[in-house]
Design a protein that fits this description.
Elements (H helix, E strand, L loop, with lengths): L1 E4 L15 E5 L4 H12 L4 E5 L4 H10 L8 E4 L5 E3 L3 H10 L4
Parallel strand pairs: 1-3, 2-3
Antiparallel strand pairs: 2-4, 4-5
Length: 101
């Protein structure tokens, strides 16, 4: 259940703005759709950033991935881990570890 999209979800440098989950991905990516479906199924709120539409966010996300664009990139809060192309199992485990489920 996405709560915000676009510019409001990130700072000027593309990093996550505010608390909660920031989801960096695209609408066409099967892994992005799968991970978003899991978050929706678990009724976990998150902000969506479309990397095809936000150059600064694309640079930030690539910086989390050793310089390559790998999606989805999911930031679990400002102090939480950043997950790169997680499986459903890995995403759910990280959510539980962070107390989000």
């Amino acid at each position: 259940m996405a709560t915000e999209t676009g510019e409001a979800a990130v700072r000027e440098d593309g990093s996550p703005a505010g608390e909660g989950i920031t989801f960096y991905g695209t609408g066409w990516c099967p892994d992005s759709r799968r991970s978003r479906a899991l978050l929706d199924r678990l009724a976990i709120p998150y902000r969506v950033v479309d990397l095809d539409a936000n150059a600064a966010a694309t640079v930030w996300a690539a910086g989390q991935n050793g310089g390559s664009r790998r999606i989805p990139t999911i930031a679990l809060g400002p102090a939480g881990p950043v997950l790169i192309e997680p499986t459903d199992e890995a995403l759910e485990a990280a959510l539980r570890e962070q107390g989000l489920v």
